[in-house]
Amino acid sequence: MADPRSANRNYPVPSNENTIEQDFLRLIELVGLIDADLAALIVALAGKSDIGHGHAIGEIIGLATALAAKADAAHNHALSGLSDVTATGAPTGTVLVKTAGGWQAGGLDAAIIQSGTIDAARLPTVTTGLAPLASPAFTGIPTAPTPAPGTNTTQLATTAFVAAAAAALVASSPATLDTLNELAAALGNDANFATTVTTALAAKAPLASPTFTGTPAAPTAAGGTNTAQVATTAFVTAAVAAGIAAITGYVPIDVGSGSVGAFIIARKTNSSSASNGSTVSGSNLQATYYDGTSWTGSGSLSGTWRNVSGQSIPGSSGGSGLWQRIS
Q1: Nearest one of 248, 244, 322 to 285, comparing CA atoms
Q2: How many Å apart are CA 140 and CA 138, to the nearest integer?
Q3: Residues 117-174 pLDDT 10s
């Protein structure tokens, strides 16, 4: 059996899908529901007043009390009756001045306003609560318009302006260098840092064509290096020794057949050294050669020889050099 209902009160309504017997039973239910709603409506209406009924003020609870606390529409107030006004004894025509505590009698009156002048006696009263233009001493939390970033004038700087300027100064500095104390520490707390750096740089050689003094040193290049790397005396000595050692089949020349103008590698056998360009008797020289392990030699030379090694040759077989026979 179909059971359709009304939209508001959910009453059963007939359906063409039901038989007459089925809808008859549902109509009986409908009559019962309507009867109950009508009974409730009658009870509710019985407690209501007529549309045209009236009430006396005394019959409205609390209304008389509320109205008694109100003033008449045409009532007036004296200044002394206002809680935020202090004007006791003020003469006629006095102008009220608003202060932090309320309104009070000011130093102006109608006569002064009309004349356009303020006498000295009344001026302190007029300026009460106001700051002077010259050297004002503000209290509380005074505010002012915040200048645009980068402003460099006599305009007042607000805390917002200072905070922005400090943030711009720090910018993207690392956390360890974003305070003046950290910057000072990084500079070694040196008040003359620029002078210190300039002095230190003055003691340094330029990259282009430096002129060294004293005994400059450098890392010794590996044997066989052939680049623009600086060559130390140790590198040159090793290179010369290696070059001589590479000469195969070398033996001392026949000291008896060395003619004038001939060259030979020899060492000083007496104790004195021979500076570059000096001459030495062949009796104090011994021809030498490198046998792959060390320098060796025997005998002595004939004639007179000049040191053309480009350096001083120590005595007592302390070192070999290049010599040229001159006689």
Answers
A1: 322
A2: 7
A3: 655 555 555 566 678 888 888 889 999 999 999 999 999 999 999 988 888 877 778 8
Give the ranges where the chain is alpha helix by DSSP (H). 20-46, 63-68, 110-115, 123-126, 159-170, 180-186, 193-202, 233-245
Nearest alpha carbon to residue 280 among 260, 254, 301:
301
For the sheet containing 94-99, what is the strand order?
85-86, 102-109, 94-99
pLDDT tens digits, residue range 190-239? 999 999 999 988 888 888 888 888 899 999 999 889 898 999 988 888 77
Per-residue exposure over 190-226, b if at least 16 CB sit within 10 Å of its own CB, e if not: eeeeeeeeeeeeeeeeeeeeeeeeeeeeeebbeeeee
* Predicted TM-score of the model (pTM): 0.29
Phi, psi of 58 (to 5 degrees): -65, -20
Quick one: what percent of the chain has pLDDT higher than 90? Answer: 24
| H, E, C per residue of 168-195 | HHHCCCCHHHCCHHHHHHHCCCCCCHHH
User: Residue 314 half-sphere exposure, CB side, CA atoms within 13 Å?
Assistant: 4
Q: Give me 79's structure tokens.
A: 């200044």
Average pLDDT for residues 271-279, to the nearest whole number?
A: 91
Q: Is the dihedral of CA 286, 290, 293, 294 positive or negative?
A: positive
